[in-house]
C-alpha cells in the first residue's frame, strides 16, 4: 500500500515538474527572444546612422568596403548577420558575398520602409531568426534598411543555459516531494487501517448493502449535531431531509433526549418519531454517535415470537428430560425383574396425566392447553409443584385471542418459576370466564416483587434480574391493553398474584393499569 502511494505521488510530482519545466521553458523562450530583439534593434540603430551606410543606401550600389565594415561590426555585436538594403530591398551588405545584390527575404520590410523600427521572427536566407530592423534616413526620407539578426539556435542556447541553472532547484523540489510522498503515504496508511484501495471500495459496497438490508433505520450524527448518513429505512421513517442536516430539525425528541443525557451508549430507549413509538439504540462514535431505531410494534411482535419459540423449546426439552427419566426407571425395574412395580409406576404416570387432562377438559383453546401441559413438564424438571385450578374453563370463542392468551400465561408462568429462584414452591394457574370476559390468575409462593420494581412493574426494562430483562411483562401488558383489558399484581395471603382481565371477544372497553 505504501509503495503504491509513493509511486503515485512520484508520478504526480514528475508530471507537475514536467509541466513546470514546459511553462518555464516557454517563459525563458519569450525572455530570450525579447533580449535578443533588443540587442538586434540596438545594433541596427548604430549601423543605420553610419555616414557611409547612409551614403551607400542613398546611392543604391554595392560597395566592397562597406560590406567588410558591416561584417566587422557583426562580429563585435556577436550577431549572426547584419544586412544593409537599399530602398528597393536589394542587399548592399551581407555575411555571404554571393548573396549581395539579391532581394532581402522574410517579408518584414514593410514597417521599416514606412519609417518604423520593428523586431520580428522570420525566415531569411540563413534560416529562422530574431531580427531588429531600422530604417535608414537621409533628408527626411527612408533610403534603405538595416537588419540585424540572431538565428534561433542562439535563442535555444540561452534557454538551455537558463534551464541548466534552474536544474538544481527542480531536483530539490523532486527530492522534497518524494520525502513528502513517503510521509503522506505512512500517515494515510495509518488512517485507512492499512487497506488497499480495492479493499476500501469493497468495504464501502458492503457497508451500503448492510444498511440497505437492515430493517432498522440507521443515522450517523457528527459532533455538530448534523446527520451525515441516513439509511434507506431511516429515510422512510424520518421527515424528508438531505444530509448533512441538523438532527433537531428531523427528530427533535432524540436531539432533546441526547442533549440531556449526552451521546452515551443507550439501548431500547422509547421515543416517538412523527407520532409513532419507536425503540432507539445509541452508540457513541468520534464525538458524534450512531443511532438505530425501529418501530416499537415490530419489536414487540418479534419479542412475542421469540417468547413463544423459547417456551416451546423449554417445553420440548423438559418433556424429553422427564420422559428419559421415566424410561430409565421403567427399564431399571424390568432389568431387576420387578415388572409389577414397573407397572404400578406406569399406571401412576397415566393416572397423573389423565387427572391433569381432566383439569383442562373445559379449557377449549388447544394452544393454551398445550402450553399448560408443557409448563407442567417444565415444573417437574425444576422441582416445582405446578397446579391448574380445578374450576378453570374457557370457551372456543377465545381461540381468536389464542396468541395473547398464550403470551400472557406463558410469560406469567415463567416469571413465577423464576420468582421461586430454584427453591421448592407452588405455582397455580386459574383460568375463568364469565359474561364480563376472561380472567387469568397466576399465583406463586415466591417472595414477591421488590418495592423498587413494583412502582414501574409494567414499564419496559423494569426487572430485578439485571440488564436486558423486563421486556416480557411489558409486552404482555401492551397486548392486554390492545384488547382493552387490564392487568395488575398484588400480594394475597403471602403469595404473589398476577391477574389479567380481558373483555369478551366482541367488545373492547378502555384499558387501565392497576397495582395493589
Automatic annotation (TrEMBL):
Q: What is this protein called?
A: histidine kinase
Q: Where are the transmembrane segments?
A: 162-185
Task: Provide the primary localization.
Answer: membrane
- Which reactions fall under this protein's catalytic activity? ATP + protein L-histidine = ADP + protein N-phospho-L-histidine
PROSITE patterns with a match to the protein in the record: HIS_KIN
Q: Which molecular-function annotations from GO does this UniProt entry contain?
A: kinase activity
Keywords recorded for this protein, A-Z: ATP-binding, Cell membrane, Kinase, Membrane, Nucleotide-binding, Transferase, Transmembrane, Transmembrane helix
Residue ranges constituting the Histidine kinase domain according to the UniProt record: 318-506
Q: Which domain of life is it from?
A: Bacteria
Its source organism is Deinococcus aluminii
How this chain sits in the membrane, per its record, is: Multi-pass membrane protein
Record localization: Cell membrane
InterPro entries, alphabetically?
2C_sensor_his_kinase, HATPase_C_sf, HATPase_dom, His_kinase_dom, sCache_3, Sensor-like_sf, Sig_transdc_His_kin-like_C, SPOB_a
Q: What is its EC number?
A: 2.7.13.3
